[in-house]
């Protein structure tokens, strides 16, 4: 059976994992909104995808910008909260500048929260929706919060907590909310990683298009549910 055509919004969709997710969703027949702080890059990325894709400007830390995005694109069926920053590699909790912590939380946690507050109510009203929060292995208590990036780890652990809360709120509504740890992905931050953005996108898109009896409120590592 062919997939139903949905409208998907991917933040940070102009490059890296976000663009790979947008491209795969588009290839599978969905309408895709590529959203990024740099609107010109978002529009260029959407043009590369072709018909059925559009670019949009959004700074997820700016309430007015998110409200303008909602007014411009309307309701969506799929929200992939991919926009994020990692600013404190190599730092320790007692030494990291709290200004970096503030910025990291503003983007990675509050940005995703703001997007959810703006777009999830539409999903609930329409009785169908999928939210995927891009998390990290550095957020996992099961793994001992590994990595020397305390602000990033705390922001992603908090994003996981938000995932659970949203899933509980939307239980039984047709909306599924999950977090995913895509693993190390080749990027400007990690050029040495073995996994390509396209490989990571396969798992993220599966989470974004789960069947109606799929899980909600879980932490995924690729296609498996893992401990928080």
TrEMBL record:
The keyword Oxidoreductase applies. It comes from the Bacteria. Gene3D superfamilies: NAD(P)-binding Rossmann-like Domain. InterPro entries: NAD(P)-bd_dom_sf, Sc_DH/Rdtase_CS, SDR_fam. The keyword Oxidoreductase applies. Keywords: Oxidoreductase. Transmembrane segments: none annotated. PANTHER family: 5-KETO-D-GLUCONATE 5-REDUCTASE, ALCOHOL DEHYDROGENASE, PUTATIVE (AFU_ORTHOLOGUE AFUA_3G03445)-RELATED. Belongs to the short-chain dehydrogenases/reductases (SDR) family. This is SDR family NAD(P)-dependent oxidoreductase.
């Amino acid at each position: 059976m062919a997939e139903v055509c949905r409208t998907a919004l991917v933040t940070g969709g102009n490059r890296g994992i976000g663009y790979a997710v947008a491209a795969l969703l588009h290839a599978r027949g969905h309408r895709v909104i590529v959203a990024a702080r740099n609107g010109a890059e978002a529009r260029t990325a959407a043009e590369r995808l072709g018909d059925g894709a559009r670019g949009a400007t959004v700074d997820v830390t700016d309430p007015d910008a998110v409200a303008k995005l909602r007014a411009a694109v309307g309701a969506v069926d799929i929200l992939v909260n991919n926009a994020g920053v990692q600013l404190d590699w190599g730092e320790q909790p007692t030494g990291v500048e709290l200004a970096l912590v503030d910025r990291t939380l503003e983007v990675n946690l509050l940005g995703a929260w703001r997007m959810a507050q703006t777009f999830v109510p539409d999903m609930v009203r329409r009785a169908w929706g999928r939210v995927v929060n891009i998390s990290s292995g550095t957020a996992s208590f099961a793994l001992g919060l590994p990595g020397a990036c305390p602000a990033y780890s705390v922001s992603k652990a908090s994003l996981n907590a938000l995932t659970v809360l949203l899933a509980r709120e939307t239980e039984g509504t047709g909306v599924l909310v999950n977090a995913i740890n895509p693993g190390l992905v080749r990027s400007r931050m990690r050029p040495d990683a073995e996994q390509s953005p396209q490989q990571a996108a396969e798992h993220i898109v599966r989470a974004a298009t789960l069947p109606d009896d799929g899980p909600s409120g879980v932490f995924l590592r690729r296609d498996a549910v893992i401990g928080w």
